Amino acid sequence: MAAWLLFLIALYILPSPVVPIHNSSAGGCAIIRPPRDGGIRYRGLTQEQILPVDYEIEYICRGNRVIVGPKVRKCLPNGTWTDMSLHSRCCKSFYRIELPNLYIGALFPMSGGWPGGQACMPSAQMALDLVNNRSDILPDYELELIHYDSMCDPGEATKLLYDLLYTEPLKIVLMPGCSGVSTLVAEAARMWNLIVLSYGSSSPALSNRQRFPTFFRTHPSATLHNPTRVQLFQKWKWTRIATIQQTTEVFTSTLDDLEERVKEAGIEISVRQSFLTDPAVAVKNLKRQDARIIVGLFYETEARKVFCEVFKEKLYGKKYVWFLIGWYADNWFKIKDPAINCTVENMTEAVEGHVTTEIVMLNPETVRGVSNMTSQEFIAALMSRLGGMNPEETGGFQEAPLAFDAVWALALALNKTVAPLKGRGRRLEDFNYNNHDITSEIYRALNTSSFEGVSGQVVFDAQGSRMAMTLIEQLQGGSYKKIGYYDSSQKNLSWFGNDVWIGAGPPADRTVVIEEYRFLSQKLFAAVSVFAGLGILLGILCLTFNIYNGNVRYIQNSQPYLNNMTAVGCMMALAAVFPLGIDGHHVHRSQFPVVCQFRLWLLGLGFSLAYGSMFTKIWWVHTLFTKKEEKKEKKKQHLEPWKLYATVGVLLAIDFLSLVIWQIVDPLHITEGWTLTFPSTSPQMRHITNPDLVLPAGVVYGYKGLLLLLGIFLAYETKSVSTEKINDHRAVGMAIYNVAVLCLITAPVTMILSSQQDASFAFASLAIVFSAYITLVVLFVPKMRRLITRGEWQSEQQDTLKTGSSTNNNDEEKSRQLERENRELQKIIQEKEERVSALRNQLAERQALRNRHRPSIGQNQNHNAPPPSSQTDPKSLLPPPGYPTTDNHSLPPSFSNSSSLYPADSKMSRNHCHNSQIPLLYK
Question: Which Pfam families does UniProt cross-reference here (predicted)?
Fold first, then answer.
């Protein structure tokens, strides 16, 4: 029985005696692992063994320790143990039963943004028990831990710090956890001459020795992540990153250090976002600004909020890589959080593939350190203390080795100060808040610490921060996989090569810019060139026709010289289509500026000639013929051609001078075209242009646009005007409508489509071609049709040769018009005469028929009729003026004696047939 009990006690390897507690419901007595001081505490205790009634437990101590209190306890039937009111404990010396205690004031965050105290407090207690059981470390002292829950809140920590400092007993060292709490404690501790040793603070701001002169930490600074991050950026060839941080000092200072390091490495931080509690806006801004490689700095609770928004914005997948802090719990994204409205599946999908950088907090090698434990043995012992709690759901489980080594670092430093203090007649128990000497000794001992702990080699730098290696992990299939280590002190990257990506490899850090020269479609260029060439031939035909028929009055009344300018301008504009489509297929790169200048001059001067001549016509028609009625007579003056030519000359001079100034001040030069290829199915393009061209191009477009709008207005105002001075102004107005509409539509469209070379060329060139075709057809085809169908050019030319008059003589024009009207009247008279002759014949036949039936009556009438000469005026029988007086058109002999054909009692005989009725036959 006794042997079995000894085996049971040895199995648990108790650093201090066990304490029985009441457990009547179990039908026996339960034993538990008690706290170091042997006090009975029920909260947080875990049942390990139920012993039956009458069992006895004998307490033993390891090493040179002795039992103080009852050595044997017996399980009673009521479920309690004997001597429950007395405590049993071990003491270090056979001769000194009561040892002086050195108190450590600790703040463990059991909740809050980082609930690291859940695993760090049991780890620190485990280290404290081991130290107190060692006879070679502080043999004359007992270390005792007095701790509170800071909830990782600086405000709560302020109140707890007051309790630690102003309540007995005195604390020789303070051990805070979170960075925010450590900042507060370390800044205040200097006023009480207290050393601060943190196990879970990573804020880079704590490395400031002027601000925190007595601060040490076994948790490396968060800036230790940054060299690893920079190394990974360079490994994967990323030169552009983005950041999002929670607005706390630890993350702000970490990000400032990262910004300096990436700047030295030639890496750009393109987007920098921050948030306090709600990351929704910050995540949206990351997506809006095309962030691809994103470094996230926030606590675990905020990380769930961030990635819930990441899922909503689709800011994950093969195009994105997130870098997070590695000290979250392994299943942090699976923990149900009422602060977010995303499912576990949503979160798992959003976080897949992210990379974490984590300080190596557990020695990967199997080495027994100063605690005589390997890292694997430490984890097993910690799991036993946690009593079956899931490590993935226990806050601070990864930092637990740091808390363990922090207690050992403190114990070794205190042990190192015993001899120097003894030489000066001082002891550690003499410490008070006004004693600077003991604090200085502890500071020197900690500053020179170097030992092998369960987290690796423990060494502090000049700022009191821990030096360590960095572990690189990647979330693959919902679990973290180690993909490498980085030693920043040696600048050595150990890479396993097992990184996994959703795409073919690491994504690009931005839109991939591939430089390439884009060429115009040669089929499109050839087709448009054929149309332009045919248009030039049409322009030559129209120009030849206009020059050849320049003596025809109808052509002269259309101001042929202005029409000639229009034809020449259209041909120049059509010729500009060819240099518009010339690219690297046709000329060398160095010749592009010359081609651009040639195209600009052809198009500019061609527009001035073609549109300027039409605008001049419509302008003068509006000036002369759209005035008020009382002013019309004054305005009906002869239109002098030099005024028309001067107007065209002014418009042409304006364009010429603007082109010359443009050529001298800011000549055209080559602009680059870029094609942007995204890892998507719809590539986008970007066209990089010269910003210096915006101002002159805007001035030219503005001037031409106003001229087009004014032309439309003038054409509308003169649509009902009819004049012989410019007889084709309505056709000119129609051409202006078409040209203006095409230009006003094409100009903005080509600017929008400037990155699409084929579409831009097609719009611009076809607008030029159609404008030229419409102008030539509208102005010249009606003239050709008129002269061909009426044959006017032959008669007009013959008449001009006969008269020998000037084409611009106003009297000659009137004479020709009268002659034309005379000829038309003669044709009408001849038609009427033919009708009169037919009627006379009918009358003669009827009279002859009557004479045969009534001969006597006819003779009496003839004797009684008055003589023709006395009743009829011979002049009334003559043809009307202008009627040819030839023999063929002379009156028949019977017409002069026609009055004898009608009977005496007829209406004509009664009215004596007045000679005024004869001209009625010609109406």
Answer: 7tm_3 (PF00003), ANF_receptor (PF01094)
